Amino acid sequence: MTATSVDALIGEQVRVRIRARDVSIALERPQRISIQNVLGGKISEIGRERNGIVDISIGIGATTLAIQDHRAGGQGFADMIGVRLTTVFHICAAKPGQIAFAL
To answer: Whole-structure pTM over 0.90, yes or no?
Structure first.
């Protein structure tokens, strides 16, 4: 994971905040893109559609990343629990401490 303007040493653990709406998902690993934070994961839970938005939980190692899908109320995700995919995102904020995704 890459973050800029963080007061920490390379390799030091930091706490990371990623807004759920700032995460994109792809069924194939994107190529030739400028975003450096590209992590593989697996869909672990898909919530109910609310006002055209669906909450989706993605397991990335021992961490769960919660995202929100706005694309047609999450159509196309109903049968995708367990499917491997790639997440793409920018870091919103990072500070020294324990590694975590706080959404």
So the answer is: no
